[in-house]
Design goal:
Elements lengths: L2 H11 L1 H10 L4 H17 L10 H21 L20 H14 L4 H11 L4 H8 L3 H20 L2
Amino acid sequence: MQKEEVFTELIQEHQALLYKVTSIYTENKEDQEDLFQEVVYQLWKYFDSFRNDSKITTWMYRVAMNTSITFIKKKKRRPDSVPIADVFLKQSDNNDDAYDERLKLLYQHLKHLNTLEKGLIFLLLEGKSYNEIADITGLSASNVGTKISRIKKKLKTNMTKQ
């Protein structure tokens, strides 16, 4: 199988992962699509450099998150851009309105976290262990645990104020 075919299959298999990351770091559909394309480009650009030192998804998370952080920094330098609408993840086929409302509320509060906090809580919500999060972010596992504990407390405080 050629490199292009392997890469295309990899992106198709893990596109939900990429959309989840890009939705956390963007506020409208247009930005999410732009960021998604940039993430795919960066994955392609560095595809040959993947050394199999970690799982492919760990590498993809890292590239996606680093690309997203760069995207946010560039966007902050453009003061003329204004978010038109909030975009929430549609992770669930669940038709439970109460669940959907809680999920919407959670994502509203996630938008107010700083860049690192968003990434850490996103990885936790994805079911990653502290060790896996440490591998992806480059932090120590104990530092990840401390930061996540603080983020949870911050989210709980902010969500109970409403």
